[in-house]
Specification:
CATH architecture of the largest domain in chain A: 3-Layer(aba) Sandwich
CATH topology of the largest domain in chain B: Rossmann fold
Mean pLDDT of chain A: 90
Number of strands of chain A: 22
Family (chain A): Belongs to the helicase family. RecQ subfamily.
EC number (chain A): 5.6.2.4
Number of helices of chain A: 25
CATH class of the largest domain in chain B: Alpha Beta
Radius of gyration of chain A: 28 Å
Domain Helicase ATP-binding (chain A): 33-208
Number of domains of chain B: 3
Distance between the termini of chain A: 55 Å
Shape of chain B: globular
Distance between the termini of chain B: 26 Å
Number of strands of chain B: 11
Number of helices of chain B: 19
Shape of chain A: globular
Catalytic activity (chain A): Couples ATP hydrolysis with the unwinding of duplex DNA by translocating in the 3'-5' direction
CATH topology of the largest domain in chain A: Rossmann fold
CATH superfamily of the largest domain in chain A: P-loop containing nucleotide triphosphate hydrolases
Oligomer: heterodimer
Domain Helicase C-terminal (chain A): 234-377
CATH architecture of the largest domain in chain B: 3-Layer(aba) Sandwich
Chain lengths: 698, 416
Amino acid sequence: MVQAEKKQALFLLRQALQNPLADFREGQWEAISTLIKYKSRLLVVQRTGWGKSLVYFLATRLLRNQGAGPTLLISPLLALMRNQIAAAELIGVKAATINSSNTEDWEIVKSELLAGKIDILLISPERLANDDFRDTILLPISQRIGLFVIDEAHCISDWGHDFRPDYRRIVRILQALPSNIPALATTATANNRVVDDIKTQLGSNLEVSRGHLVRESLQLQNIQLPSPAARMAWLAQHLPNISGSGIIYTLTVRDAERVANWLKTQGINAQAYHSELENEKRQTLEDQLLNNFIKALVATTALGMGFDKPDLGFVIHYQRPGSVVHYYQQVGRAGRAVEQAYGILLSGNEDEEITNYFIQSAFPPEADTQQVLNALTCADNGLSVPQLEQQLNLARGKIDQVLKLLSLESPAPVTKQGSKWYATPVHYQPDTEKIEQLTSIRYQEQAQMAEYMQSQQCLMAFLAKALDDFNPVPCGKCAVCLGKPLLPETCSSELVNEAIKYLRRSDQVIEPRKQWASQAFPTYGFSGNMKNDLRAEAGRALCLWGDAGWGQLVKQGKYQHNHFDDALVQATFEMIQRWQPQPFPTWVTCVPSLNRRALVPNFAQRLADKLGLPFVPVVRKVRQNKPQKTMSNSYQQAHNLDGVFVIDSWQGMKGAVFLVDDFVDSRWTFTVIAALLRRGGSGAVFPLALALNSLDGG
Amino acid sequence: MSNHLLQSNTQAILLLCASFGQKRDTEPKPLTLGEYNSLAGWLLEQEMTPGDLLNSTHKNKLLSATIGKLDSNRLVALLERGMMLSLAMEKWTNQGLWILGRSDSQYPKCLKQKLQHSAPAILYGVGNIELLTQGGLAIVGSRDVDEDAINYTNKVVQNCAAQGIQVVSGGARGIDQVSMLGALEFGGTAVGVLADSLSKAAVAGKYRPGIKEGRLTLISPYDPDSGFDVGNAMGRNKYIYALSDRALIVSSSFDQGGTWAGAIEALKKNIVPVFVRLEGNIPEGNKQLILNGAKPFEPTPHTSSLPTENPTEEVETPHTSSSLPTENPTEEVAGKLDKPKDIIYELVLPVLLEYLEQPLDEKSLAEYLDIQVGQMQKWLKRAVEEGKVIKTKNPVRYCLKHSAKQLLAKLEAKTE
């Protein structure tokens, strides 16, 4: 019986791989067999490319043959990789995806699934958090699921490097699952602590199948290059000499954009890839990389889990990731089905600051949590998020983060019904000790990564050991084993200078707001959609606050010298030349301040002189309000400006105007003054700032 | 507390009977209570528990069996809804809801005892589970009420709260809510048996603090997300009665409406003694209920700390919060003058009986309950005299009288 089943499974495997000689890898058949025969709960820890997806495809096929319902696969992937879908189809397993980008297909998928025409359905963990989706789509189709699969299961572990709150819900769903449905959890990266944690959460009857992690064709090297310009120059110089296509990882979305654009100016075919792009765009980019149409994707961790390109030629890190597990997971995408692949870690001065920021903002401060809870507890009939914004001086993002984390507690002190959040009758005590523990683990991981950067032992062995791989041996091919660099550690000073110039041209667009914050402007009477003739035009900021280009000079001007350097006047002038706003302004004005009366007008005056335009300070501040930077959400920021400014008129008013400020964050100040100027008879208003705050740019 | 980790028996009962937020006519249709009862009978014959149905070998047995008119393919399809169960469970329990199947040890025994086959297969709830075993006074009445009825209800619930008598009601507009919210306001406890929307009620501002303090428990035999349904509203009346020791009808229309139907049902089935308000502006239904066997209710209790207007009638008033299951509820209506020691004994008796399902000596029993051995001997002696417990010699052990044990077994068998 078992032999017959195995024979059939082997037949299917060969069919899926289109290779009549293929055989199971160690552990593959055992995993399939325990799922279909004993309806087990199984955790498979195997490196990417080992064939985890074949386990659930074959198990699905065999279970379907026995008359079982389709498989439900929870995965953070946008879609199954094309080669996976092809393999599945070869054995008659039809896959479908439901995610936020294909809502129009949901009903079709639903009816096909209920009709038994779909064998495996892929949904993202975040979908589970959407009540409407759960009630109208997921519940109806879940009446006959034959196998439950959780991909990237290391996200379950809150001790892990990549804990995702949504996985807490998945754990509870798995725990509540009756024993007549088998379940499979898979991951490519999990050290002992993470495996133990997953076991604790999923129960002692969880079986574990675990293999080696070492990548044999991957060559590792670490290079310390403190300044961003030096690393950008290094990439521009050496990327063309590396064969194949690959990935360059950055820590932030802005860096991904910036590095990609820089490489384009250097004639290298690179594209940015991050979470702020549309799903469709992301899939196109993935395809372009898979087919070697581009040299590199410059990506954040958004390009991650499950991305499967066997011939990836290199993975280069522009900045140092927060942990060894993160690093291994990313660098391990290279060197699977090629003779040679590079894993290069560049590290700079800003790395630690960025990873610190991630660690510190991972959990909301307890006071924020308490404020949200108190507001909901006092409400008889719940509150919407905009209502919470009106009651609390907390950023929208913070409110969302608090609500999300609270709603994932078990049991949860808050719940969403319709569009409103309610307090539940649950007693809730925040686990501050656990948060402290987690934070300290993150710092340890960060330190271990710094240690890896300096490692004098085999780099691959270092990674394997850190991941609790058993018995790692020196790889013999990394820069340490070879005793010499794989790629040069230096780059030309000409390129570095060019990169510095590029960084100083990082103009930022200030998009105009188009809608008034509800109930925020009783004095001015602004509400609803903004009329076209009150809106600001798209503006420009010279740099990002504290950034590598002009950011430092702006910071000094504001907080040390109380005077903006002439270099900034010149740079702003050049930016305007590049920009050429139309109709070109005929005068300059600025945002007034009662605290620093001269700083901005002085700068605006010098800029106006340089442009040969009159500077006319027509905006007056008639009421001292709270500092705008202490206002945390859109409602508070908008409301804080109501009735604060008045506009004096002058005869040249009706021309277009530059509205100058030193710093832009929420854009409400520009928005309100622009509307007042327009109402007072001015022409188009072009906001102009020295720096854009980008802390939330992650 | 991990509410989402259910016993396999409860899982199976849910798979068979729950609609998990879907319409009840969605295929495969969940079992009705009657259908479930016939399956439970078959399981008993096979010496199987509901949880065994989750095991594939037993599942095959199901396919070849003939169980009443039940289609075994439907049963198998229902049991395949495991993913649906876990999604629904996760959602409900994470809001603080819990689920009890008829096989759970915390499932209120009074429902099984008083309702037998009509005891719901599943109960959804939120709040302190222990309140379900504390009996109390059921207070029900129409949705539309006058000031008289409201004042009267408030007076009654204030007395209940003062004496530690729980209020049981249905959470509907009108008398139901007045009595429940009143009980909470006066510091008492309340149980609400809802006909719909348990998840919504659980987070309503008016109920939340009471639930959080452990003084209010809301339950429903219907899907927590289900909306209002007249049939369900009628169907849940008997559970309100069965969870209480006595019932008070504040106002009822005659021969129509849920209050009337519920009261008549309670009287006919002898679920608990039924009392009626005969004060102030008395609705016609109230008078008619007297003709159908209900008794007039005297709201002022006999407790000495509270003034009484008519002490001679005190024997007729409800005056204990005991949840004693009585085999013959009418006996209580006749009334008997309980001395405090009798009250205590009656409170203790069910606890003793539960322990004595296994033979025990008086010393260990006293230790379990942290009671002086002398006191324990007195109680045991009385229980033996009443024929509820038998005493064996060499060694000295007490246990449930064989017949009593059988009776319990039979009761269990009927409901499972």
